[in-house]
Write a structure and sequence with these properties.
By secondary structure, the protein is an alpha+beta fold. Among the domains are: about 70-165, Thrombin, subunit H, CATH 2.40.10; about 285-375, Pdz3 Domain (Roll), CATH 2.30.42. It contains 9 helices and 21 strands. The strands form 4 sheets. The protein has a 7-stranded antiparallel beta sheet with strand order 5-4-1-2-3-7-6. A hairpin with a 5-residue loop joins strand 4 (about 135-140) and strand 5. It starts with a helix and ends in a 5-residue tail after the last strand.
Length: about 375
């Protein structure tokens, strides 16, 4: 039998460290749920693709689960444009034409990518992929090749909606580009150079890029994932396979690498919804031309503000015209949002539905006043 002194010694030597270890383990499990091996779901209870990867990833990081989730929703697009060759009058004679092997028509082929947005066959791509073409075919992930028709286009954002007749389509899951952060891993899925579906990996380099002169309305996600010819219209997805944007362009300048751009998914969804519902994208319109106030403008015109938009022109009969705003005024804020640059303000106005009020804070000389315009309807470039 162990006496009390030996029992106390064993408890101090073995029991206390073991008890301390159990307490530490319990605290780690409470503070770090992933140690429990439990499935983690989003706040709304939905599985957004993270659960599968959290439970399956081990060792070196792999994005195969994200690709497997998104790739079936990305399609290859092939287009044809029929071009009639100019014909010499002498070739109207069938006898002479036989000597020259003359072809009255030739085909100009191009390629791109697209993303299945709905199970009924609606596909989003870039407008420049399908603009002014005569024939469109779509190659699905499972190998089916089908003809496609254009439902509608929006040149202002370089987006187009296509429709195919097919069953067993897998629409892509749309993510939250507004929640994306610089440094987040992204994957570009598309059909570069017509080689077939390919995946490139990178990070988000910047958000809300504008002023590139590519589209009327620009709010690009910038990435260093390779976006090559043929990737246009394809998917930029997050590390879980959720759509963040439609790949649209890259900087093609000597010595420039790793600068690709994608149209955010929330813009894509709005364009899709408007085209399906109304046949076109409906945007608000104010009817004035303005430029951002710069130090040079302040100096040249002796302006009383270093911020805002300097009104250059007012369109007759426009909502801005009806408020009494005139050239030389400086717009400081729009609907209580401070003006930072012309592109952001143009997008803000475009997002206001026609008929809704637009409150403007205006500086004229040294006097500030407010006016309220009623948004008009912006004409589309299409």
């Amino acid at each position: 039998m162990l006496d009390k002194q030996k029992i106390d010694w064993l408890f101090n030597f073995i029991g206390k460290p073991a008890l301390l270890g159990l307490v530490v383990a319990a605290l780690l499990i409470v503070l770090f749920p992933q140690f429990r091996g439990e499935t983690i779901v989003s706040d709304d209870g939905a599985d957004d693709g993270r659960n599968e990867q959290r439970s399956s990833w081990s060792g070196p990081v792999s994005y195969s689960a994200a690709v497997s989730r998104a790739a079936p929703s990305v399609v290859n697009i092939y287009t044809k444009k029929f071009i009639r060759n100019r014909q010499h009058p002498l070739l109207n004679d069938p006898f002479l034409r036989g000597f020259f092997n003359y072809q009255q028509q030739r085909n100009q082929n191009s390629l791109g990518s697209g993303v299945v947005m709905q199970a009924d066959g609606l596909i989003m791509t870039n407008n420049h992929v399908v603009d002014n073409v005569d024939e469109i075919s779509v190659l699905l992930y499972d190998g089916r090749e089908l003809p496609a028709v254009i439902v509608g286009t929006d040149a202002d954002t370089d987006l187009a909606v296509l429709k195919i007749q097919a069953d067993n389509l897998q629409p892509i899951t749309v993510g939250e580009p507004m929640q994306s952060r610089i440094g987040d891993v992204v994957l570009a899925i598309g059909n570069p150079f017509g080689f077939g579906q390919s995946v490139t990996q990178g990070i988000i380099s910047a958000t809300n890029r504008n002023g590139l002169g590519l589209n009327t309305f620009e709010n690009f996600i910038q990435t260093d994932a390779d976006i090559n010819p043929g990737n246009s219209g394809g998917a930029l997805v997050d590390a879980y396979g959720n759509l963040l944007g439609i790949s649209t362009a890259k900087v093609n300048q000597a010595g420039v690498t790793g600068m690709g751009f994608a149209i955010p998914a929330d813009v894509v969804e709005k364009v899709l919804a408007d085209i399906v519902k109304q046949g076109r994208v409906v945007r608000g319109w104010l009817g004035m031309d303005a430029m951002r106030v710069t130090p040079q403008l302040v100096k040249t015109y002796n302006l009383s503000s270093n911020n805002g938009l300097l009104v250059d022109k007012i369109h007759s009969g426009s909502p801005a015209y009806n408020t009494g705003i005139r050239p030389g005024d400086i717009v400081i804020s729009i609907n209580d949002v401070m003006v930072t640059d012309r592109h952001s303000s143009a997008s803000q106005i475009a997002d206001i539905m026609p008929g809704q009020p637009i409150k403007l804070a205006v500086l004229r000389g040294n006097k500030t006043f407010s006016v309220t315009a009623v948004a008009g309807t912006r004409k589309s470039r299409n």
